[in-house]
Amino acid sequence: MIGSNGASPYDLVGPALLQALQLARYQALRDTGKKIVSLGNENDVINQRVTHEEERILCSNASVVSALEDLFSWRHKDRTSKISRLSYVESWKFRRAMYRIWIMSTLYGHGASSTSNGQPVLAASFGEQKAFLQQFTSQELVQISKVAIFLQSTASWAIFAERKLIGSLDVYDFDSLYLYAGPRVVLRCYEEASSNPLPSPLPEDELYDDFLMPSLREILNDRNASVPPAFIGSILDEIHGEGDKCAQVWLYHPRSVRLLTFLLDWGYLKGTLESPSETFVKLPYNLVEKPLFQVVRSADYSTLFHELFACRGDSFAKWSKEDWLCYDCIQNFFQQTLLRWWRDRKVRGNFETSDLDMCVPKS
């Protein structure tokens, strides 16, 4: 199949071309203002010529999926590289599931328009969502579920890093909202470490609570299929460094515990460590000052942890930036060093926060 400019769309999107092209066609139809009708089986999309607009959308979507794959690989496959280390088959399974989630967001979620009577598409689509998912095998549905969980955790990282509330509820409780918004919005939340890209105003009556996951769980239950807790076996065939030890504890950790290194993960700690208020509760109250809360909350953790490391106490003197450490050890370092760093900062008379402004962890 050749695109309108003579280039193969496969070169642009890699694995999961069929799903990527089906998504592009749905989005191209939506953008014309026409009613989106089913394009049928995804295997049939290969038989039509790719238009200029579809090719543009393919490229735009592919950049989002590639960035999310890089992040997934770094967090779950190989923590030593921020470039994807997924095998061809692993990448195909990840991308195929990602595009299918994105198709659902386009048809029934934030990317959809209202019905002819003004009713939100989501309110009228619960049966259609289930019918869409029913066409896939149980194994493919498990893969969709695991990639959906990854998207939820990625968006939750951003909201946790931001420490922002929507109304009276924590944003990071809204797992279904992230899927409703779609992969592009989730990536923007991560890159901006912000909830601003999420739909605003929020859908009425919290309809997004019933987006994707309830139908997915119901189908899997009907088929007596379960979703494994880990990505191994569903998306991944192997994990690099799975048996590595924490440099300080010197114990093997269970698979669910991911080790970190300061060199790669300092910026990422913004959305993983306990919030400043949770940490300070464990510290002597009379030593805590309000400006410290404000500085730490707005800080870029990559810069902050470089400064914390530079002023670490004797108990951390033998630590190296190259060490692989568990979350517990890093959390302990954070709590034990923060007030020491703040005291040194006050001695220098440096109360400015501009050099610690929050930003996305760079790849």
List its salient traits.
363 residues; elongated; 2% strand; two-stranded antiparallel ribbon; two-stranded antiparallel sheet; 14 helices; 48% helix; single chain; 4 strands; disordered C terminus; mainly alpha; disordered N terminus
Task: Supply Rg.
Answer: 23 Å
Oligomer: single chain
Mean of all residue-level pLDDT scores: 80
Strand tally is 4
Which structural class fits the helix and strand makeup?
Answer: mainly alpha
Shape: elongated
Task: Give the distance, in angstroms, between the N- and C-terminal Cα atoms.
Answer: 34 Å
Percent in helix: 40-55%
Low-confidence spans: 1-6, 166-172, 353-363
Strand content: under 5%
Q: What spatial order of strands do you see in the largest sheet? A: 1-2
- Sketch the major β-sheet: 2 strands, antiparallel
SSE pattern: HHHHHHEEHHHEHHHHEH
The DSSP helix count reads: 14
Which helices and strands, and how do they pair?
Elements: H1 9-13, H2 17-31, H3 52-76, H4 88-108, H5 126-134, H6 138-162, E1 165-166, E2 169-170, H7 175-181, H8 183-192, H9 213-222, E3 260-261, H10 262-265, H11 276-280, H12 290-298, H13 301-310, E4 324-325, H14 327-347
Antiparallel strand pairs: 1-2, 3-4
Helix pairs in contact: 2-3, 2-4, 4-6, 6-7, 6-8, 13-14
